[in-house]
Amino acid sequence: MNKALDTVLAYHQRTKHHFRRYAAGPDGLDWANQPDPFRTFAGSPALELPLLAEGPQPRYADLYTPGRIAPQALSLHTLAALLELSFGLSAWKEFKGSRWALRCNPSSGNLHPTEAYVVIEHCPGVANGVHHYVSRDHVLEHRCEFAAPAHSTESLLPPGAFLIGLTSIHWREAWKYGERAYRYCQHDAGHAIAAVRYAAAALGWQAHLLGAWGDAEIGALLGTDRAQDFNDVEREHSDLILQVTTQPNSNNDEPAPNALIRATHEGHWRGQANRLSRDHKYEWAIIDEAAAACTKPHTQETIWQPPALPEPIASPCQQSATEIIKQRRSAQEFDGVTSITAAAFYRMLDLTLPRPGTAPWDAIAWPPRIHLLLFVHRVEGLEPGLYVFLRNDTIEATARTEFSPKFEWLDVAGCPAHFKLYRLISTDTRDAARAVSCHQDIAADGAFSLGMLAEYQSSLEQWPWIYRQLFWEAGILGQMLYLEAEAAGVRGTGIGCYFDDAAHDVLGMKGQVLQSMYHFTAGGALTDTRLQTLPGYAHLRNIRLERDQ
């Protein structure tokens, strides 16, 4: 076993929560040094982006039907719409003089370690080069102007395509969560992948991960490897590059990293990154060790084709995609009473299955590695109990061997024929769901709760950096479930705090074949009436209107 893999396995084991101890974290929150949630680059020219206009919007349900939404042309307005719907502010909240922003992309603890960059050319109104997105002000900071090509007709990107680069600032999560923060940063990268893919779908576009790119190539393109621009401030770690394509059936035309990196290396860079905290009371060396062990080189990507499946179960939701995306919230408390229909529950499960050309799963090119352990509390037509939903056909034999021999593995009457959904045991699972979710009532009070189990051992035996992808996939699942909960008239929330091995004990698991990556729950949410909620960009509209007058 190589050293990098040893380090990753040790990190995962060390950062598990247990009944008798939690993973190492700060003794208390150092509020005086809470990280600034917004990175900016002083000295980079800022381009104000137009805000979404009022008017007809595509239906949320249409996001899952390829070709249903006509593709819009790439322009300043459509680029701005994609950024607003993926990383923009959805609301501000106020309570007793404190004010904080919510964004369209979910984040562990609302700490938002993910930074977004745009690499673009030939877009009217937007300068060619690398831009950093600042969600607070809905602006693009022009970090790098591409060097002029040798021939004026040369293009660095395919026609109608641009790139979204994502990085993580580990400190933002470590400030609160300590050693476990690296996990949460990867969750949030997965949330962001799905957020971009859904925003692209709302414009009739596609988005997919450029899986061959290595971390060093991403850092060189985005400028996050430029030490002189990050003088004595928190650094950013390369996550991934997405290609957004505005023209149908153009996903196979991908840019070469070398040409783009040459254009930025020889280009003109501007801007100095801001410092997020005056002081770091704690440092977590194990996060840097895990990040180094998970470094991805340039690789050859293997494209996986999903099997043919029936069309997704129809949704009764009539709201627009913009409404659902912007109203998404993380529930803080559930009523413990609300149930959901079997149809809504089955649709949520159905949308976890990849289909060709269908958001969000066409954004990644590997087969499902995450499966769902379901604590069903109040789903009409289903007996309360423990269920398992397998997202590919290859894991069932292994799961039956790994799980307790006492389980029933009963088919669920009335569920879609293409589902691998089994009832393991019929029982009240509320106490178990609460217990494994760090004793949080919210896991017991929802209509259902679930744990995401990754094909851990077989995945990491390929490459240690696949550890990141397991969390990304879990994050994509989380964002999909968030939106579907909203569409079903309830609310969801991700649960990053859970007792890893206790969840495995529920299944009677024998080894490391499967490991927990994320928990999620959905149900009828209670509203905290003490909080005042304000629209995300109302302040910008007013400021711009007053200035323009």
Distance between the termini: 66 Å
Overall tally of structural domains: 2
Q: Please state the second-level CATH architecture of the largest domain.
A: 3-Layer(aba) Sandwich
Characterize the largest beta sheet: strand count, sense, and whether it forms a barrel: 8 strands, antiparallel
What does this structure look like?
- The protein is an alpha+beta fold.
- The protein is built from 16 helices and 20 strands.
- The strands form 4 sheets. Strands 2, 5, 6, 7, 8, 9, 10 and 11 form an 8-stranded antiparallel β-sheet that branches. A 7-stranded antiparallel β-sheet has the order 15-16-14-13-17-19-18, with helices on both faces. The chain has a 3-stranded antiparallel β-sheet with strand order 4-3-20.
- The termini are far apart.
- 48% of the residues are buried.
- The model has no long low-confidence stretch (mean pLDDT 95).
Name the features.
NADH Oxidase; 549 residues; alpha+beta; 20 strands; 7-stranded antiparallel β-sheet; 29% helix; 16 helices
Short characterization:
The chain is α+β, with helices and mostly antiparallel strands and 549 residues long.
List the helices and strands and how they pair.
Blueprint: H1 3-14, E1 41-42, E2 46-48, H2 76-87, E3 89-95, E4 98-103, E5 114-120, E6 129-134, E7 139-145, E8 161-168, H3 170-177, H4 181-202, E9 206-209, H5 215-222, E10 237-245, H6 257-265, E11 268-269, E12 272-273, H7 285-293, H8 321-327, H9 342-350, E13 370-376, E14 385-389, H10 396-402, E15 410-411, E16 421-426, H11 430-436, H12 442-445, E17 448-455, H13 456-460, H14 466-487, E18 491-495, H15 500-507, E19 514-523, E20 532-535, H16 538-548
Antiparallel strand pairs: 1-12, 2-7, 3-4, 3-20, 5-6, 5-8, 6-7, 7-11, 8-10, 9-10, 13-14, 13-17, 14-16, 15-16, 17-19, 18-19
